[in-house]
Amino acid sequence: MTPEVRQLTAGLRGLREAAGLSLSELAARTPYSKSSWARYLNGEKPVPYDAVVALCRVVGERPERLLALWELADAEWSGRGSSAAEAEGEAEAEAGGRHGGRVRRVAFAAGAAIAAAVCAAVLLLPDESADSAVPPPTYSPGCTGPDCDGQNPVDMGCGGDNMVTTAAQRTFADGQRVELRHGTTCHAVWARATRLRIGDRVELSRSGAGPKEVRANVRDDTTGYLATAMTPADDPAGTRVCLIPAKGDRVCIEA
Prior knowledge:
The protein is an alpha+beta fold. The chain has helices at residues 3-19, 23-28, 34-41, 49-59, 64-78, 80-95, 97-124, 220-223, and strands spanning 164-171, 177-183, 188-194, 201-206, 209-215, 226-227, 231-232, 239-244, 251-254. The chain folds into three domains: 3-78, lambda repressor-like DNA-binding domains (434 Repressor (Amino-terminal Domain), Orthogonal Bundle); 80-120; 145-254, Immunoglobulin-like. The protein contains eight helices and nine strands. Strands 1, 2, 3, 6 and 7 form a five-stranded antiparallel β-sheet that branches. Strands 5-4-8-9 form a four-stranded antiparallel β-sheet, with no helix packed on it. Helix 6 (80-95) packs antiparallel against helix 7. It is globular. Residues 103-109 and 128-138 have low confidence and may be disordered.
């Protein structure tokens, strides 16, 4: 895998993981299958331009930075670099030996200019990992406060970067992990779980609101994240998340 492809796939995987999306959930919300997403994210298959846009739209992320990385990766996938070299050789032969050196220099300079322009575009895009005086972008989720009650946090775009905090978390003896998530932009809480076993349930409860529950029913539910529906909350304090394993006793955490 080339460095360009590695950078792109790492960026795509980071967005999916930050949003807590399983491959099945990602496939359900985009035109691409679960197996296709697996190959795209592992760098086993070229990523379509529209797939990058679709993932960014699902998680509420601006696509510009990843699309600039996609341009570099696509140049490797499509072999445009090799095609340019072949075209240079043909032009050099037609021009003859006397002009060959000049054609080669012009073609090299043109190629270098294009590469420099693309790299500059990537460098000029905001780097989320670098300190900057520019404030992070803000997003408009699909709901806030009472409107989020019973809604899926992923579908509503409440779990994107800079929009959520983990109020409490715990990994249990059998490996199941649960988290209490607080959507600071959506003003809501929900539970997120991973490494569940088939039959395990996770329940979120809060005074004055009905409980929210999610259950691992099939194998795919045990390999990715599962999230309960949301409950409105300006502050996660007083919210409880319980793991109810298929075999064993209920165990809970609380903010």
